[in-house]
Amino acid sequence: MRVELISIGDELLIGQTVNTNASWIGSQFSKQGISVDNSVTIKDTENAIISALDVAIYRSDVIILTGGLGPTKDDITKKVLAGYFSTELVINEEVLTRVRGFFEARGKEMLDINIQQAALPKSAIILHNEVGTASGMWFQQDEKVILSLPGVPYEMKHLLSTQGFDMLMKKFRVQKLYNRTVQFQGIGESYLADKISDIEDSLAKKNIKLAYLPSTGMLRLRFSGKFSDEVENDISKSIDELYKRLSKHLFGGEKKSLSEVVGDLLIKENAKVGTVESCTGGAIAKELVQVPGSSRYFEGSIICYSNELKRNIVEVKKIALEKYGAVSEEVVLQMAKNGQKKLNVNYCIATSGVAGPTGGSEDKPVGLVWIGIAGPNSVRAYRFQFGNNRGRNIQSSVLTALNLLRCHILKL
Amino acid sequence: MRVELISIGDELLIGQTVNTNASWIGSQFSKQGISVDNSVTIKDTENAIISALDVAIYRSDVIILTGGLGPTKDDITKKVLAGYFSTELVINEEVLTRVRGFFEARGKEMLDINIQQAALPKSAIILHNEVGTASGMWFQQDEKVILSLPGVPYEMKHLLSTQGFDMLMKKFRVQKLYNRTVQFQGIGESYLADKISDIEDSLAKKNIKLAYLPSTGMLRLRFSGKFSDEVENDISKSIDELYKRLSKHLFGGEKKSLSEVVGDLLIKENAKVGTVESCTGGAIAKELVQVPGSSRYFEGSIICYSNELKRNIVEVKKIALEKYGAVSEEVVLQMAKNGQKKLNVNYCIATSGVAGPTGGSEDKPVGLVWIGIAGPNSVRAYRFQFGNNRGRNIQSSVLTALNLLRCHILKL
Fold first, then answer.
1. DSSP 3-state assignment of A410?
2. Helical (H) or strand (E) element with A225
3. How high is the pLDDT of residue B410?
4. Which of these ranges, A323-337, B48-62, B66-80, B248-262, has the smallest mean pLDDT?
5. Beta bridge pairs of residue A235
6. Radius of gyration of chain B measured on its C-alpha atoms
7. Please, how many CA atoms are within 13 Å of residue B32, restricted to the half-sphere of its CB?
8. Omega into B214 within 30° of 0, i.e. cis?
9. B88 — alpha (psi -120 to 50), left (phi > 0) or beta?
10. Cβ of residue A114 closer than 8 Å to a chain B Cβ
11. Which helix (H) or strand (E) holds B88?
12. Which is more confident, A253 or A75?
């Protein structure tokens, strides 16, 4: 099953929009052990679409087109495809009813160009769009499938996830892969590989593969093997073992972010959290607040970027700042403890560090970050040495701090 | 000049990396009035590279390849190109010296595979890489140019900006475009177009074009015309006029972000800033702190997500919270004024709103945000109604608040 993507749209070629559709579709096929062989981006002209289709039909089995299905004049994909496959556009009553409902629900007037969105190629199988007005279209020619989808990311994802992928797997009799992904914080790729080499070896014998997917301050590990109860069981057992072995780093599956995992724990404990941030400058608070409903556990923060505020609002002792400096174990401990009281929370995260690019010294180089965690019964500080990049240092500090809080709550 | 991009790398096809190189190159050509006609992403195999080159050389004049120039075995682009253009790899002494210097400067040992990075195709013109070890390679065939660049974004950008673009413009005798971009906050595309229709019309007569480039909470406007003193002068005059007409929204050119512009103003005034945030939960502080050196003007923040903290730390009056609710003019005014004192700053930004997706009411729907700005002589509150998306509401609030602060400092 050779897969090719055709992304249609001038906005992609002139760089006004980054093509995240292509990478998302690639990652979804990759989860099924299928690789996309070619991905092309073209202008929204009839010639460009026809040329790309000619090439793709020659070399690929599955061609997924995205874009050009909107109601306006520059959206020509549907017409070009109807011509290419020598079929006519006919109003699909089911689609028309849904498009009409879509406008009614939003209290918007339905124009003739919107009605035209229900005019679809007669020979195509229609994929029904529950989240927008452009339908997906499935054409077949010589055992090849050409699937046209809207370019709006959430509409495209909806159509592929709910219908497209299943239809493709069935049509090409692809044995589905079973996938599970777990997420780690605070452990590097090579170090993790070393810690789990025995598990990886024994899974390899059963044709279950591991993929390491790193990003700043995080690492995702994906298990995949052919769908069977045995494979599901083997992967499940291995993950249980990982949870035991690496509980300080393994924070969950792929559905929830670290801040959501921490939020769930806080809700379970009926506990409140706050932060006292220096070098992260509010980035931990922002990450916590990103989660809808975080007001159930997030109380607030003090961002004491200056030493004056560390003293005046957080009441860090003057002597500690003078003797050890702001970036020190003693100061983050005071920040965490005092913050806990002032913010009236069960848990308080504190950070102080040298985010860079300047401001480092021999003793306290750029990337040095102290993180303090105060909990109901204890307060602890941890030292980290990150790199030279300001943005990445802040991001690493945020994720590290949230994971330390997780460990603190779970007493790991 | 028909331009085609070939991005090489499995990581792009399986969606592990989003192809930002293609969009950056597209945007740079677009600035010169040149459109990229095709952009293809392929596997890093010899066959895939050769097939893509065959097609590209047939239909395009300029072919830019990115990726596959690293020192490891899976980086095969250089070898494939040498074969394709029937030339041999020879050590380039100038490049070898620089690569050696690169390793010496970092105190790292230079391995044989690194020496091989100085082995380059004899017939290619070499583009010298000052920020990495992979050189750019310029091949010509039948008046067509094939330019191979590393896939690391900053190395690719460096080679194109310092050498590649100029060489292409010269070779194809393209008259360069003069471009200037200005950035707006708090004004929509259609509203701006209406306000400046007379300017747009008169520039159109001189073949100077405007491009509207919107993003969440922001709008960039790009002017472009053929390089000449007259065009430069016309654009410059128009921008001066825009600064007069739309001073509340036009915050600067494209080189600085809004938080940098605000930072510059604060440095100039020798003033300090702080924030008291509820619905933005630290996102304004984070945006200010992103700027290296922001400790010169950013003191800190109080994130009072809960009403208890609004009362206990910010000392918002209980009666105000009870009578008007947390999301109200009265409360943000108190937050801004009290924050100014507590944080000991000249300017204080305060926010309180319903970020969503839930928590809205008839009176105070999701997306309602109050922003308060306290300055040396006055305090004011502003009401905004954003949309339904939590992330976009927070981002819009951040940019709106920073722009209000800019207006406040400049007394606009």
1. coil
2. strand A218-226
3. 96
4. B66-80
5. none
6. 27
7. 21
8. no
9. beta
10. no
11. none
12. A253
Contact between chains at A394 and B289 (C-beta distance less than 8 A): yes
Residue A262: is it exposed, middle or buried by C-beta count within 10 angstroms (0-12/13-18/19+)?
buried
Q: At what angle do helices A77-84 and A46-59 cross, to 10 degrees?
A: 50
CA atoms of B166 and B143, how far apart (whole Å)? 17
pLDDT at B396: 96
More confident residue, A113 or B310: B310
DSSP secondary structure of A143-159:
TEEEEEE-SSHHHHHHH
Residues of each domain in chain B carrying CATH 3.90.950.20: 258-409
The whole-number average pLDDT for the span A218-226 is: 92
Q: Has residue A73 got a pLDDT over 80?
A: no
Residues 6+ apart with CB under 8 A from A274: A298, A299, A300, A301, A302, A339, A340, A343, A344, A345, A347, A348, A349
Contact with chain A for residue B215, Cβ under 8 A: no
Task: Quickly state the pLDDT bin for B108 (edges 50, 70, 90).
Answer: confident
CATH 3.30.70.600 residue ranges of chain A are: 177-253
Instruction: Suggest the residue from A11, A60, A219, A305 to mutate for an interface test with chain B (most B CBs closer than 10 A).
Output: A305
Model confidence band, residue A175 (pLDDT cutoffs 50, 70, 90): confident
- Bridge partners (DSSP) of residue B211 are B222
| Alpha-carbon distance B103 to nearest alpha carbon in chain A (angstroms) | 18
pLDDT for res B230: 95
CA distance B71 to B78: 10
Give the pLDDT of residue A211. 86
Cβ contact, residue pair B14, A22, below 8 Å:
no
* All residues at 6 or more sequence positions from A322 whose CB lies less than 8 Å from its CB, including other chains: none
Closest CA to B34 of A60, A10, A350: A10
CB pairs under 8 A between A and B: 230
Length of chain A: 412
How high is the mean pLDDT of chain B?
94
Dist CA A274 CA A94 (whole Å): 51
* B 27-86 residues inside an 8 A Cβ radius of A: 27-30, 35-43, 48, 55
pLDDT score of B329 more than 90: yes
pLDDT at B213: 85
Nearest to residue A37, comparing CAs of B362, B45, B2?
B45
Whether the CB-CB separation of B180 and B221 falls below 8 Å is answered with no
If DSSP codes are grouped into helix, strand and coil, which group holds residue A140?
A: strand
Predicted confidence (pLDDT) per residue in B122-146, tens digit: 999 999 999 888 999 999 998 999 9
Instruction: Select from B342, B287, B280, B286 the least CA-distant residue to B315.
Output: B342
The answer to whether B305 contacts A298, with C-beta atoms less than 8 Å apart, is yes
Q: What is the CATH number of domain B258-409?
A: 3.90.950.20
Distance CA A355, CA A386 (A): 9
**Type of residue found at B5:** L
Other CB atoms within 10 A of residue A98 CB: 17
Strand order in the sheet with A368-374: A379-385, A368-374, A347-353, A273-277, A298-304, B298-304, B273-277, B347-353, B368-374, B379-385
* Rounded mean pLDDT, A41-54: 95
- Cα separation, A115 vs A96, in Å, equals 7
Judged by CB atoms closer than 8 Å, whether chains meet at B390 and A303 is answered as no
Where, residue-wise, is CATH 3.40.980.10 in chain B? 3-171
**Residue B274 pLDDT level (bands cut at 50, 70, 90):** very high
The yes or no reply on domain B3-171 and CATH 3.40.980.10 is: yes
**CATH number of the domain at B177-253, out of 3.30.1130.10, 3.30.70.600, 3.40.47.10, 1.10.510.10?**
3.30.70.600
